[in-house]
Amino acid sequence: MIEKDSISELISFIKKLYVPKYISDREKKIEGIFVPLHEPKFPGNEKKYLLETINSTFVSSVGAFVDRFERDMSSIASTKRSVALVNGTSALQISLILAGVKPDNEVLTQALTFVATANSIAYTGANPVFIDVDKDTMGLSPDALEQFLINNAELRDDGCYNKVTKAKISACVPMHTFGFMCRIDKIVKICKEWKIPVIEDAAEALGSSYKDKPSGSFGLLSAFSLNGNKIITSGGGGAITTNNEKIADQAKHLTTTAKIPHKWEYFHDKIGYNYRMPNLNAALACAQLEKLNLIKNSKRDVYNQYQSFLENKGINLVNVPEDTDWNYWLMSILLDNKNDRDLFLTETNQNGVMTRPIWQLMYRLPVFKNCQKDEQRNAEYLEERIVNIPSSAII
Ligand SMILES: *Cc1c(COP(=O)(O)O)cnc(C)c1O
Question: What is the DSSP letter of 31?
């Protein structure tokens, strides 16, 4: 049982940590303060680049900042290419299409994720299949993945098939939960043996790396998000990264209404999408990327302060799994059981400190309730116990 007193102490600690700088020490009344879960910060050239963009009139989907953002993203993910898109969900959808996912195929992913992962699979007409996660990384478990494939899959000349449903398993989408890296090297190895393309859902992991290799560099394609709640934001935005030049060209084509470039003719060679990131958003993205390390360093400091405070307080701060160089996106605690979790959520949210439980598992949602899944022991354990605590940078 968690003590109400230790929750109160943590609430005071968080409020003092995040008390706005403009409130002088003498006036510090922490009662009235509200601390959000994750706030965007704009410490650099954001306003300058936005004004430059407006003055240039190139506010929409063509412009210098879009090109620069794509170069910056491929440099951070150390991939050959990157394609800027309107959000992370569209980046996942286009990645799935380009990996060859077709209607009625199956895509392996985790049930412990934000709904966009499963939605993007559904958009292609394919069915998600939910595989368990590892307890420490909270991301797709390579052991559970291998077990599922051994029990259910068969390898044919043209790929991997589900022996039971007869459907083709045409992609695997592991997700890096809260910026922690899943055991992506093992997942890539297993998927290679089973001829399944890997798409990293790196929406939460911009700036994280695994065994010194950045997120977004492991999959055939990877998807990032620059939504307002992520480590850095372009208002709304996303990106695909890939080492495959041909796929990158296809991604750009498909997301630009599949228009064949010509000085004046409108010719579109397939049903394309209007998913290109506007230059206005790219301006914000470029300014934010310049400060990614500053933001990451401040968040590391916040994490270290939580760590020293929570020592011997009976509340477990979730530790960074081994081999992850973390971006410190969302910090979390692990409670003993669901009752403690609910008490913690109630106390904090009623007292001005925003906290949130980890997502409900995808198969709890009506639209995904009939999807195939394995045992989900770790996912269900974490679902009942993990709570995110305020994690904004202090800049
Ligand atoms: C945020 C997020 C997305 C979707 O990104 P948007 O930019 O909001 O569309 C996808 N997957 C995960 C795991 C996310 O956290």
Answer: G
CA of 120 to the centre of ligand 1 (A): 10
Q: Give the span between the Cα atoms of 230 and 238, in whole angstroms.
A: 11
Query: What is the pLDDT at residue 1?
Result: 85
Parallel, antiparallel or unpaired: strands 168-173 and 159-162: antiparallel
Quote the strand ranges of 167-232, DSSP E: 168-173, 199-201, 209-210, 213-214, 221-225
Per residue in 280-315, pLDDT (tens digit) is 999 999 999 999 999 999 999 999 999 999 998 889
The finding on whether 234 has its CB within 6 A of some atom of ligand 1 is no
Q: Residue 94 and residue 289: Cα distance in Å, rounded? A: 23
CA of 139 to the centre of ligand 1 (A): 15
In whole angstroms, how large is the CA radius of gyration of the chain? 22
Q: Do 390 and 13 contact (CB within 8 A), yes or no?
A: no
d(CA 83, CA 69): 9
Cβ–Cβ < 8 Å for 96, 160: no
Residue pLDDT, tens place only, 112-149: 999 999 999 999 999 999 999 999 999 999 999 999 99
- H or E stretch at 339: helix 338-350
From the CB of 87, is ligand 1 less than 6 Å away? yes
369 alpha-carbon distance from chain centroid = 23
